[in-house]
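Reopening this ticket.

The earlier resolution said the output was attached, but the attachment link was broken on my side. Pasting everything inline this time so it's all in one place.
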Amino acid sequence: MKNKTLDVLVKAENNLINIEVNGCYYNSLAYRNMAYIFEKYAELYKVGDRYSKKVQVIQINFTSGLPKDAEVIDVTQVGNLKTGKPKINNFISYEYNIDKIKEMCYNGDKKYDFIAALDFDKDELEKYCKGDEYMEKFENELTRLNEDIEFTEFLTAEEDNEKLKNTLIDEAREEGEIEGEKNGILTVAKNMLKEKADINFISKTTGLPKEEILALKEN
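Inline output:
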């Protein structure tokens, strides 16, 4: 699953759950994620004859590359800034900091080891899961998904990559780092390399050839 973006929408009884695996972080990521879940939240009230709070809407993000001061698990609700109390009781968002969870895992804390495994490469995953029956089953399922052509194509949809590329360019431009789209794309690629994003993922997102990205890595 490393450096992939997974969008899963699950309806279970009175719960609507959206799950996303974000392979890299950028300043507008929260806006992108919230735009989608708020759209689904609004759809709940387009049907029926009343505004019901029976359905619980839950957003779950597994994100790599978050700022260093980010919490291990960040919980967000729509609430009153003064009292801190939620105004909407049927919406909540959780963001799991993959980098810090991996660090916990490496230090022997296995509380979130199945989440840390989402960011392991194949060798790491095999080494970590060996000897644990539950984690070996988890490894087999992750491997199957990563080798499923239809699944990986869905994860790297062209429209989403184009939006991501344009968003990252805009952010770099706003911060005064670049002039012009080509320089913007190069800046985006450099920033993604700093966050240790996969070369294939960077190439698909920016449209740059792998050779050019590798040259940036060496410089």
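Reporter confirms the inline version is readable. Confidence is low (pLDDT under 50) at residues 1-6, 151-156. DSSP finds ten helices and five strands in the chain.
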